[in-house]
Amino acid sequence: MPEGDTVFRTAERLRTALVGKTLTRSDFRVPRYATVDLVGEVVDEVASYGKHLFVRTDRVSIHTHLKMEGVWRVFHCGQRWTKPRVTARLVLATDEVEAVGFSLGKVQVLARAEEHTVIDHLGPDLLGPGWDATEALRRLREYPRRSIGLALLDQRNLAGIGNIYRSEICFLRRVHPATPVGDVTDLPALVDESHRVLGQAAHRPPWRPMVYGRTRRPCPRCGTAIASRLLGEDDPADHITQRERGIFFCPRCQPPP
Ligand SMILES: [Zn+2]
Fold first, then answer.
1. Cα 146 to ligand 1 centre (Å)
2. CATH 1.10.8.50 spans which residues of the chain?
């Protein structure tokens, strides 16, 4: 699942391709917006917030979310698409390029003034200009009994972390992912680490995981075999869509709480 750094870099690519350009074609391949036509509109801005992407014209904001499989590609006009046409959900074309969103998890056209409704509930964006560590801490501390592994995934606390980086951040801070938030030693340092890890992934890719996806391989710090387990909770108010996903850790560097 794409995380904040992927969305951030996608926004950069779309910005380069579209900003200041007039749309010569828009093709929404989702029933609800099939009749929306943005021809003649100029793209003002492309922005990301956490895992959410916004392409703004002076009139509307096109909100997309990659969810599990989504990806944006930019092609020169006439260039053959590198993914199946049937998976295209949205095409935004200019005189020079076609930006195509494939397998997007969400496509929504909003009035510019309504855009905030998508992100109002989210925590501070780890890759945004307004990153606010104090607010992220405040949100995390609201549920001190919740495991840090789940709290990091909840976009209402910090926006941008997915399954890969939550494992990495816990490893770097030597915190077992099942540790309750209230018992984490130096929570502010963990929040700062989150900001650093995402920033590094976004600005200096490629980035190699130390524990994620490395079950039974040696811990880069102590050589112990990396373990993985599912971390879930039966909280109906939980907004995590894929609760039961593997988290990776070193059983020696990150002792159980
Ligand atoms: Zn270790």
1. 24
2. 133-249
Cα 202 to the chain's mean position, in Å? 11
The answer for residues whose C-beta is within 8 angstroms of residue 30's C-beta and 6 or more apart is 89, 90, 107
Residue 245 known to be catalytic: yes
Confidence of residue 232 (pLDDT cuts 50, 70, 90): low
Length of the chain, in residues: 257
Give the distance (Å) from ligand 1 centre to CA of residue 191: 21
Own/partner contacts of 235-240, CB < 8 Å, gap of 24 or more, are 238/150, 238/154, 239/154, 239/155, 239/156, 240/150, 240/153, 240/154
User: Catalytic residue among 51, 56, 139, 214, which?
Assistant: 51
Cα of 162 vs centre of ligand 1, distance in Å, is: 22
Q: Which of the listed CATH numbers 1.10.10.60, 1.10.8.50, 3.10.450.330, 3.30.230.10 matches domain 133-249? A: 1.10.8.50
Concerning whether 3 is annotated as a catalytic residue, the answer is: yes
User: Terminal CA-to-CA distance of the chain, rounded, Å?
Assistant: 28
User: How much is the pLDDT for 233?
Assistant: 56
Task: Write down the catalytic residue from 156, 229, 245, 252.
Answer: 245
- Tell how far the Cα of 239 is from the centroid of ligand 1, in angstroms: 31
Quick one: tokens of 98? 């076609």
Looking at the domain covering 4-119, what would its CATH class be?
Answer: alpha beta
Q: Which one is catalytic: 3, 98, 115, 168? A: 3
Residue 235 has pLDDT above 70, yes or no: no
CA distance 6 to 164: 12
Q: Is the pTM of this model over 0.85?
A: yes
Residue 164 has which token pair?
């890969």
